[in-house]
């Protein structure tokens, strides 16, 4: 008898030893993680103190400077950008700025987009679920998430939003004010239940065998031991089992419930409440799904929002490279409220209504977030580029943020999206077992169409962010967070409302004045420029705007003070402001050259059609045409007519480079004569025969242009006496014209000289005979018959 039971006892003892070793290893892992986390916190603390000392040193240095160079309050990040300070000026609200990733970005540290972890791909590959499963999901409250569909994450967009998330207020600090994801967004976008009991309970430390038994009871199968990991189950084991045994049409109700619980677990572990491992689901949620109706009375929406807040708070640290949470909800929130980054939706496919079983009652419509389960047009919006998103948020204006995107459609939403409407504005804790985060809609009342005043001080309780399940096995979280559970129970009495408002908030509103002092306005630093890629302009725009604002009010103060202040001191101060602004915008090179302060000539008000550009194809053989006859036939009246109002050569019209167009200054459109055997592109030709035409097309007649000194020598070669030309001596003919193939560079210099300093002494008055002889000497033999034929016609 003893020999029969001995093997069983040994096997049982061996399993116990393995289980104890696993628990010991898990405990040591958690102890090491806790030790590493405490060391990181100490390092961050010392780094913050060191940065504060640096800030104090910079303040003392700045105090020794003249008064006109001092700012209101120097906190940090000073010097490199002169008077451009990203904020906050008042540190009373953002007390954790030194540990925020935006500080490292401002100092030049480059970050790749955060890795957004999710594990819901296998769920969406299942396609349309059985109508019986969908009915059970409606009872449990997860039908809206399923109908919202699969949304691809933009990691760069999530990262740009994380850079503006503040753990101190649980809001995004945008240039237009604070904004955040609220219970309203969770309810409308996903249709999750809001007004219910918190998702918490006793996290019982069960053995692996006990978890196997519970899975067999509620899921209908017994996962292998390798699929468990400290109260978590690998999602792959659920996928493999239910793929092998699909739901049959005649399956009993308890089998349908197995499938429904498995699909809900896939949503919880892969999308709504994901685990940091990216492939497991916490089994503490499984007992809550025993009764589908009871599960539907829980506040899953507040639990999901708590998980999102916790994920964003952790991701704001500069040493974090990944984020895990319901990030699809955050992306939908951003698309609804920020048109700058919103892709254009394509028309959704028309789908027939889905009916329940053999009845005639269709399933309810999906939540508002389902409208994004379509294709996108990306012609107007750039996606997946972190620097672009960061710069868009830095440049955001008041009219570029939609405070109430649901105002016009809220009455047409299904019931699941409006079930918790009474507590959308409750100032209460959000609870999900070990996770507790504070919900502060009183800081974003404009999202509810209400007046936003300066909010009271809030405390997100920093200590709560270090509380998790590691090392806390067998914890009753209801008792552990009793004070917060009681606050949630009183959620209806904690609703905050203000008077409704319509229209944007004024720039000089007391809230905006206060907000600009306590917030971080800029993330991108204009002083940090990379060798390639997009260069943000948000910081440059802010720098220029601040400088112009200071110059404006400095001039106003000088006008009011009259003779009390020296004019030279005021001008010197304004000059310094301009210098600092140009230096910060990397445009200080402009200070090395004095600009032309003359006002350009006004453009004629006459509305004319587009100029008719005459194009000619190059002749065969690649030869480029040029009308030499026109250039030689100019007399003094022809040359001076386009610039009749020019008083002197110093005010001559601009000389455009001949390399762009050899016919810019030719008044007539004549056939071209071959000048070179080299190939040449088509040359645009326009008629500039009158000064009125120049003014009409926007060319100032009296623009000041310095003469091109490089053309002096070619001009001297053109000073030929009339008497010399009349003798028909080949030596008296200009070198340009005394060749069968004129030099194109010399001819261009001649035309440039004519355009720069038109003078009657530069041209030769020729009779028709002399003109014909000169032209004939310039033409190839093959061109002479054509010219004679054309002359006979004229």
TrEMBL record:
Residues 141-516 form the Aminotransferase-like plant mobile domain. This is Serine/threonine-protein phosphatase 7 long form homolog isoform X2. The lineage of its organism: Eukaryota, Viridiplantae, Streptophyta, Embryophyta, Tracheophyta. The keyword Coiled coil applies. The keyword Coiled coil applies. GO terms for biological process: meristem maintenance. Residues 11-38 form a coiled coil. Pfam families: PMD. Keywords: Coiled coil.
